[in-house]
Structure to design on (637 residues):
């Protein structure tokens, strides 16, 4: 039986610090949800509350319709994979994988059969007799997964399980993990601080910052339609560029003035214009949302700080408002450090955020 | 110059070794002399002449094995009590944050600075009141005496074991005793090795409490008997030396056995 998970007004305080603040989240059955955010954003605390390792200060947790807020972890039918795998070093892989069943005192024959089956599924039959100290990180990862799968949980909880695997293997295991989750169809909550991992794995990503939920969305929606400047800046291999602007009116037209240059505000409905109550905004531009040395005259000129030729493209970094401003350019782009570069912002792919609240104003939400 | 330095260092090292090892060697060869010979004979031989086992024969005729047996009767329950009491205390101090945690640890460190004489007489009266004088009371007293050090020591070993292991076992529904004695304790084997060696040595060498709490001379531990031999009985030096040699054999055995865990623990670390 698969379950959906509902977090209702979940709050956790440690002394005076609030780790998680009034979190409301619904995770559908069979869904792969990734909790994403920088360290200290409350994602691990949230996972530990779902697991039953922490008791919430306020709020409720439901599995299907059942209130599990204060239920012993054992009775929640969850399986957790820890960051350091938490394999018992004094037990062999076989003993580790069979641990959940041995605790339940299942018959030996049944245990043996199930371990074999799981080991076959994960391709680890050859290391069943080895202890964790003798196997590689990737293998330990599989043993930890096997130990989680064998108890046929209703929910998978994973706390940065790939952070100890080296970079090349990580991409490989990531793919396997996603396939495994789809095959087993187990509701999964996965914690990571790596946005690439989140985008690659998730059906849905919940972005957290400072204990507060910023946005829950499908990976691409998160990328193309960030609700806050935090999400915009956090998602994407290259961060979104932000330009601090004040809003001014000239000849009946709204302009964003950065101090160096001004650009026309996009056509906005009146309701939107009314929303720009504060005169300070942040313009968000993705590195692919601007072009270098276009045919037209650019929006602004700035001096080149660095060039990163990556083969398929070149990352051009100029300095604007004392901060780096990155643009993706074609691979044959040539210039010298210090050159003045003309940059044009694609108005269709520009975001406007309220500087005070961080919320997106344009495109209309 | 540097060669001279090396030689100088080696000379210093060798003289230190000689200084430490020589008394042991002296005791050892003396134990094979004839009991009529003195410890400081007029003619001193670095290598023993006229080896005999007479001193050992004399020693075995005394209640030597009784005394050693009594010492074991105190040692074994002391070690067992230590393991079962220290483990949960160390675990609590390592894993839980509770009111008074730091004060308790400070207290455990500070009480080790007090001489055992401070507690000797009060302990005597307490044991007398509860009818626990002689070996049983001594085992209890030793457990209390050794506990503070081993609590702190084992806690440090537990600190190196990631809490994720306990959390995982807890999530799977393992009971606390199971987590403690089947998962955490086996991972702190080197900590247990330390407890075994130091506990054994502590009990084997202790004199003040044993002298105070044992009132029945039939229950004398070796250390008390050894003192008596030296003080009252006219024991020739070679016999005295034979006592010393025999009494160190059990300690050696324990050391060789427990050292395996010590080495393992030191080399591998409980976890990577």
């Amino acid at each position: 039986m698969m379950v959906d998970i509902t977090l209702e007004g979940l709050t956790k305080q440690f002394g005076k610090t609030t780790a998680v603040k009034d979190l409301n989240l619904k995770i559908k059955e069979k869904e792969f949800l990734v909790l994403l955010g920088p360290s200290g954003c409350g994602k691990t605390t949230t996972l530990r509350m779902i697991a039953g390792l922490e008791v919430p200060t306020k709020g409720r947790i439901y599995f299907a319709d059942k209130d599990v807020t204060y239920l012993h972890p054992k009775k929640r039918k969850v399986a957790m994979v820890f960051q350091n795998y938490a394999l018992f070093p004094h037990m062999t892989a076989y003993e580790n994988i069979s641990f959940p069943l041995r605790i339940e005192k299942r018959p030996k024959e049944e245990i043996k059969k199930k371990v074999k089956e799981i080991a076959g599924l994960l391709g680890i039959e050859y290391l069943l007799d080895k202890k964790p100290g003798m196997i590689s990180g990737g293998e330990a990862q599989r043993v930890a997964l096997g130990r989680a799968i064998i108890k046929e949980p209703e929910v998978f909880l994973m706390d940065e399980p790939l952070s100890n695997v080296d970079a090349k293997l990580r991409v490989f295991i990531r793919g396997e993990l996603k396939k495994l989750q789809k095959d087993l169809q187990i509701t999964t909550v996965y914690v990571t601080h790596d946005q690439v991992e989140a985008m690659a794995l998730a059906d849905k990503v919940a972005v957290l910052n400072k204990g507060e939920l910023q946005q829950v969305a499908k990976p691409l929606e998160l990328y193309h339609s960030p609700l806050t400047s935090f999400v915009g800046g956090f998602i994407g291999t290259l961060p979104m560029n932000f330009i601090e602007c004040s809003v001014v009116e000239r000849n009946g037209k709204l302009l964003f003035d950065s101090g160096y240059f001004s650009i026309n505000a996009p056509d906005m409905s009146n309701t939107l214009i009314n929303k720009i109550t504060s005169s300070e905004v942040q313009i968000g531009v993705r590195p692919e949302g601007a072009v270098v040395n276009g045919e037209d005259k650019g929006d602004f000129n700035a001096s080149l700080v660095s060039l990163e030729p990556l083969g398929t493209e070149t990352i051009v970094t100029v300095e604007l408002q004392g901060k780096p401003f990155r643009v993706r350019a074609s691979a044959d782009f040539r210039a010298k450090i210090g050159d003045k570069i003309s940059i044009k912002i694609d108005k269709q792919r520009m975001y406007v955020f309220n500087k005070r609240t961080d919320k997106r104003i344009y495109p209309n939400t | 110059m540097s060669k001279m330095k090396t030689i100088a260092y080696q000379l210093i090292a060798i003289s230190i070794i000689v200084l430490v090892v020589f008394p042991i060697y002296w005791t050892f060869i003396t134990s094979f002399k004839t009991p009529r010979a003195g410890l400081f004979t007029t003619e001193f031989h670095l290598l023993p002449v006229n080896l005999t086992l007479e001193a050992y024969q004399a020693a075995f005729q005394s209640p030597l094995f009784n005394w050693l047996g009594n010492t074991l009767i105190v040692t074994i329950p002391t070690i067992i009590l230590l393991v079962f009491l220290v483990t949960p205390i160390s675990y609590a101090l390592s894993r839980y944050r509770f009111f008074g945690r730091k004060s308790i640890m400070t207290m455990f460190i500070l009480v080790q600075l007090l001489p055992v004489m401070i507690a000797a007489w009060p302990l005597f009266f307490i044991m007398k009141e509860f009818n626990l004088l002689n070996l049983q009371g001594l085992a209890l007293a030793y457990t209390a005496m050794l506990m503070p050090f081993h609590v702190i020591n084992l806690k440090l070993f537990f600190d190196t074991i990631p809490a994720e292991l306990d959390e995982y076992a807890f999530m799977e529904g393992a009971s606390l005793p199971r987590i403690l004695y089947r998962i955490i304790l086996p991972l702190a084997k080197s900590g247990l090795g330390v407890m075994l060696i130091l506990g054994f040595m502590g009990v084997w060498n202790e004199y003040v409490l044993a002298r105070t709490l044992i009132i029945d001379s039939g229950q004398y531990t070796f250390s008390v008997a050894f003192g008596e031999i030296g003080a009252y009985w006219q024991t020739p030096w070679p016999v005295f030396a034979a006592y010393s040699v025999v009494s160190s054999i059990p300690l050696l055995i324990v050391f060789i056995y427990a050292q395996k865990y010590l080495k393992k623990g030191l080399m591998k670390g409980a976890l990577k």
Notes: Residues 92 and 237 of chain A are 39 Å apart (CA to CA). Chain A is about 25% helix and 35% strand.
